Every structure is written in C-alpha cells, then in structure tokens.
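Slide 14.
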Amino acid sequence: MDQTRKGLTTPEMIAEMKRELEEASKPENVSRSRKKRVFKVLGDLLFVVILLSLLFILYQVISVKRTGNIPNFMGYRLYRIETESMSPTFPVGSIILARSPSDPNSLKVGDVVTFINLDGDRVTHRIVRVSNTTDGKVAYRTKGDNPANSMDNDLLTTDRIEAVFIFKVPLF
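Slide 15: predicted structure.
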C-alpha cells in the first residue's frame, strides 16, 4: 500500500502527533490550561454580574422616574442640575452622582450637598459655613457657585440633606 498518497497519515505524522500529545499532557502545560479556564470562567462571571447590575439599575431608574422620585442604588443617587445656580461648576443639564451622607453632622465647608429647601424644592449647593441652631444642632449655610447668587436665606438642617456630591458624570 502506498502511504504517500494524498490524504493518508504517515508514520512520521503519527509520531509527531504523539509527541504533541505527550507535551500537552505534561503537568506544567495542564496547569496553564486550567489557569486559562479559571480566568475565562471568572471573566464570564464578572461580565454577567456587571450586566445584571446595569439591567437592575436601568429598571430601577425607569420605575423610579415614573413616580417622580430620585433613583437610588445602594445609597447612590443621580441628580440632574436644573438651574444655573451651580454654574460654572455644574452647567444646566449636568448629571451628578451623589451618595447619602454617612454622618450629616460631619460635613464641612466646600462640600456640595443636595437637599430639600423649606419650599419643598430639591437644591444642589455648596456649604459655605457651618454653624449651630439655637438648640445646639449642626446647621449649614449654603450657596450656589454662580457668582450672581447670594447665600441661601435659610439654614440647612441635617434632616433635609439627601446626598453629598461625589462626581460629575462626563458628557453631560
């Protein structure tokens, strides 16, 4: 039988395949392939977790926006700047990420906070002074960053603070 015919496996080819199989079954090569598999599984798992988190956040944003509330995910909130009071720091239409304050009594001058003013409006302004109320509780004086603004008339008490600024979402 002529083994040089097209499509037949020669003894040299069989010997080369055996060497490749022996090489692939060495412990150091097996552990490399295991590591690759582990990293692939971990990467796939991380992708699924991130995807599910994003879908959950999207669902929550849509459902909360229908009711007129602010989306809240594990204490983090997104706010849209509606007026020029914080311009030029946050132009109108900017989106900011903020978190619920861990201790509203420990905020300091320079912190940007989102709060409900006495008229019931949601406002984002900077703390410009820390003081105390007549009963000794911590209160804050706030002001928008716009140079045309004056300080807010009412003292901000800690019970009206919703969130503390973390960062401005890019592109907004």
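Speaker note: Strands lie at 72-73, 76-80, 95-99, 112-116, 122-132, 138-143, 156-157, 161-168.
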